[in-house]
Amino acid sequence: MDVLILGNDLLRQKAVPVENLKDNLSQWQETAGNMFATLKAQNGVGLAGPQVGLMRRIFVVKVDGDEPRVFINPSIVETSQETVKYEEGCLSIPGNWADVVRPRTVKVQAWNERGRVFTLEAGGLLARVILHEYDHLDGVLFIDRLPELKRNRILDKIAKRVKA
C-alpha cells in the first residue's frame, strides 16, 4: 500500500464505518495484513485507513513490546484528564517531529480482525498511538494539535522541500 502524504485531500476527510464486518471478514483480515506490511516497511508504529486511501474506520498498531492490534470502527470511551507531552511524527508527514500534548491514558472499544468486539485501556506509547491513529479517522493530523507557530514552521519546512 502507498502511504498518502500531507497535501492529499483524503487525509483531511472523515472516514466512514466498516459495514457488514462479519460478512466480509476475510477482506478485512487481508486489508489489516496489508496495512501491517506497509507499517513494517515504513518502520512505523501505527497506520490508519485514510493514510493509505482507504476511507474506512480502521487502523493498525504495532508498538514494541506489545502485540499487533487491529481496530475496526473504534470509539474512544474515555480519556484521562491528566495529559502528557511527547514527540510525535507521522508517516504522512515524513521527517517532521513535534511535541504533542495528549491524554495520558485512553479506553477504546473496537472490533478486531476476527470480528470480535473488545475494550482496551492503554497508557504510555500505546495510548498515544491509538489517539494519533484515531485522529486520522476524523481527518485530523498531529500538526493540528500544535500551537500555530510550531505548525506553521513545519508547514513552511515542507513547502520549501516541495519547492526545491
Describe it:
The protein has 164 residues and is of the alpha+beta class. Helix content is 29%, strand content 27%. The strands form two sheets. It has a five-stranded antiparallel sheet with strand order 1-2-3-6-7, with helices on both faces. A two-stranded antiparallel sheet has the order 4-5. A hairpin with a 7-residue loop joins strand 2 (58-61) and strand 3.
Briefly summarize what is shown.
The protein is α+β, with helices and mostly antiparallel strands. Helix content is 29%, strand content 27%.
Name the descriptors.
27% strand; 29% helix; globular; Peptide Deformylase; alpha+beta; five-stranded antiparallel sheet; 164 residues
CATH superfamily: Peptide deformylase
Q: What proportion strand?
A: 25-35%
Residue-averaged pLDDT, rounded?
96
Largest sheet: 5 strands, antiparallel
The tally of domains stands at 1
What is the fold's blueprint, element by element?
Blueprint: H1 25-41, E1 46-48, E2 58-61, E3 69-79, E4 83-88, E5 98-103, E6 105-111, E7 117-123, H2 124-137, H3 148-163
Antiparallel strand pairs: 1-2, 2-3, 3-6, 4-5, 6-7
